[in-house]
Design goal:
The chain is α+β, with helices and mostly antiparallel strands. The chain is built from 17 helices and 23 strands. Strands 3-2-1-6-5-4 form a six-stranded antiparallel β-sheet, sandwiched between helices. The longest helix is centred in the middle third of the chain and has 38 residues.
Length: 588
Amino acid sequence: MMPSNAQNIPSIVAQAAADVLGLEFGLVRRYDPDGDRLIPAGASDAVHEKMVARPVYDSDEGMPGKAFQRGEPVEYEGDEPQLPDGDPAARIVPLGDHGTLTVGTADRQRLTETDRLLISLLATSATAAFDRAARIEQLETYRAIHENVKERIYVLDKHGRIRMTTDSLTDEVGYSSDEVIGRPVTDFLPDDAVETGQQLLEALENDHPDASRTLETRLLTRDGGEIPVEIEISLLPDDGDYAESVGVVRNLTALEAERARFQSLFDRSPDAIVDTLFTEEGPVVREVNHAFEETFGVEGDRIRGEVVDDHIVPDGVDDEVTGFGPDMDEQLTDAIEVQRSTADGIGTFLFRGVTYKRTAEGARAFGVYTDITDRKADERFIKMLNRVLRHNLRNAVNIVVGNLRLLESSVDGDTETYAERALSGAERISELPEQVKHIERAYQTDATAFETADLAQLVEPAVDRARRKNPDACVTADVPDVRVRGDALLETALDELLENAVTHAGAEPTVTVSTHVADDTVTLRVSDDGPGIPQLERDVITGYTDITQLTHSRGLGLWVAYYTVTSLGGSFSFDDPATVVLELPREE
């Protein structure tokens, strides 16, 4: 009974069979619950010297398995060929849940009824030793937890008195463990917290004994101070009942400071924010900020506890686009555009939601509404102007171009020259609506919406068109077969770059298209031998200089290329005044 370590017990018990009982063969098998096996763990000297290595049995295999499963002794019946020669006898006795004890002898006459009783007594002592060692091990574990665990934990008995606590918790309130053991929990918690805690325990015992509940309160310290804490309360079973409880205490001092900072942000945010609790009825208002009250014309005190959508979602709006949902991820959701009833009528908002905590009552979430009503009106106004301008400009320019061509064919001399210049300018103006259309499409299209294409199949047709349109220009391209994200819009951008190069590079320009392929990107360079693009214009395109009446691009061709490449997830830059660089994502 002396060893506190269960590992030492099997050898002591097996050797006792030989030294005390005079039966030379003693063997203890320990039960392995993970493998459901009986494994040799300790043997007498004779077993090591005279017998082959003892086998491992399944828990229901052989005589050891039979004794273990039945829970009663089993006698050797001559069907174990691995026992020594002679007239052997053996008795196998279970050791509770710990395994079995086998005691045997090569001379059957030596195993008497008295020996059988003594073997059972030895087995009983061994079982008690195993039980004691397990209790010691458990107590050592408890002691280690008590002394070293960083969590602040207490255990209350059925009368609400402290039965155990960790040093980290007693240090927090300024006491030693000995000073708090046996004292009522009311000495360390406010009355309302004790009352609420008792209600939570009763609810757990009646409905959810295996669950836990959380209580936020103040911990009373020895010097009269208060510490903000969160206590997670659960039940401890005691002979089938739940008379005791355990609490895990978390210090919320740092959290309260964070809450104060967040509250300041919450209150001062220009966006309307609502804090909600998801219920079966919908997202119920817990709190709203001042911007929410101002924007939607509601008072927080009046709508607190009510479903938020009932107050701000206009009639006829589908519930699916209200934004809130109990399965929102614990991160900001992608913004969605929603219509809401405001103090000034129906408004348009970008809604983002995030679940920040899940409780027994339900998930808690923030809803953030960014008012884009004016922006949407501006977008509609600009779209209207854009469409009308393109339509009217196209029609007017078509009339001008048609009449200039008639005029050109019917005049000569200086008048013909003037007509040719006017016609050239009108034709350039006629291209503007189409260029604006390309820019609009590139600006409004997400990169993932573009299909992939072979870059050479986009570049080569653009080069051929540039050659046909400008026979005096030398246009060359060296583009390998590599796939990029892009479609006809990228081909149009290349048309614009080549046209820009041959138009401004001189009478007989040389234009080259070259490519560099990396693991993830493809870099396309369009270069010419002309004077290049002025620095001021390059700064406007790349964003180094704002667009003003004095600083702007001479045309829209470079803008078509810029917006196309950036919409594809690439970048637009200049190597030098005469070289435009397009870096495109490479696709498999």
